[in-house]
Write a structure and sequence with these properties.
Order of helices and strands: EEEEHHHHHHHHH
Distance between the termini: 74 Å
Number of helices: 9
Strand order of the largest sheet: 1-4
Radius of gyration: 23 Å
Helix content: 55-70%
Amino acid sequence: MVVETEMVSVWWRGPVDNRPEGASGSNNAEGSSVLQEVGDVVVPSAGKTAEKVAETPAASTGECKPMRADAARNRDKLLKVATQTFTDKGADASLDHIAKAAGVGIGTLYRHFPTREDLVMAVYSRQIDALEERSHELPAQHDPVEALHEWMRGFVDYYAVKQGMVTLLRSMMQSSPDAFAEARGRLRAATERILQPAIDAGGIRGDVSAEELLRALGGICLSSGTPAGATASAASTIALVDLVFDGLRYGAPSAS
């Protein structure tokens, strides 16, 4: 059976106990496939082997249709709520809670993010996107040295989210190393982009690399909290970042 829609359709075929979180309904007596819609998910409940299939109408033609405005808004709301939820409660937080807090059905969440890992990866990538964007924006708003300082402070927010997902991320890194290598490359490039102008301006010592700065910032954030989200005060973490920044300025040409 083919269901035509502008969006990804999530199908579930299997016993009641194996349906996606939030689904309802029961198998019929004859065991035939009965279509049920729960929120934004169409659920056929029958058979003995659970199987979830996500498909897009454009898959057969190879076309990639642009996301509708309402779908884009829903995705953005889900990512915002998931980011805060994973920061506070970790990556094991209820997906049903995330959907409700975003004001959408659980089916909408599964349509955009068929698995928990998909949602975690989207949140992780979104945080790196933010660091990349700031590496472009801050130099237009501040001098190179102050732009670096502000970017380093913003790194704390990125790592707070990552800490909430760290256990699951480590597992995902083993199964999808290429995806994380690409993300790591983007982060390193953003760090280099914000660091080098400060070095060139003479406000930062020239013997520090982007990789070393990332390790220093990551070490501060790692020592300031736990994956469960029980973080030290933001002021304390920022104070340590400021201390590292002062160290970068020591011995710089303009400070001599």
